[in-house]
């Protein structure tokens, strides 16, 4: 089948438009997922705030290394199940857990019991 130069250009442009439409769809879905992630992270933050209110009465410090290990092991298991890069999951959750410990400590203030290994930067509690 022979096509004219104009027809070939039309086919190439249509293909480019299809790719542009698909890219727009990808971006829209990423934006929606980002919004869902922010909503979930806000819910998680509220639980950290609850923990910061409860822990002082229990004599529990913000940083509980055993709990950090549990959280990371759980997340890595879910990451494997969902085919999420374990490296991505570990990096994100280490940062999230470190931030959570720091946030809990700030919220607890003087009421914060001290842990044996008062080293928030090496690992963290996430409630």
Secondary structure elements and their pairing?
Elements lengths: L4 H54 L6 H17 L4 H23 L19
Helix pairs in contact: 1-3, 2-3
Please tell me about this protein's structure.
This protein has 127 residues and is an all-alpha fold. The chain has one domain: Chorismate Mutase Domain, subunit A (Up-down Bundle). Helix content is 74%, strand content 0%. It has helices spanning 5-58, 65-81, 86-108. The longest helix is centred in the N-terminal third of the chain and has 54 residues, at 5-58. It starts with a helix and ends in a 19-residue tail after the last helix. Mean pLDDT is 88; it is low at 118-125.
Key terms for this structure?
127 residues; mainly alpha; Chorismate Mutase Domain, subunit A; 3 helices; 0% strand; elongated; disordered C terminus
Provide a short characterization of the protein structure.
The chain is mainly α.
Q: Gyration radius, to the nearest Å?
A: 24 Å
Query: What is the CATH architecture assignment?
Result: Up-down Bundle
Q: Order of helices and strands, N to C?
A: HHH
Write the CATH fold name. Answer: Chorismate Mutase Domain, subunit A
Please give the count of helices.
3
Strand content: under 5%
Number of strands: 0
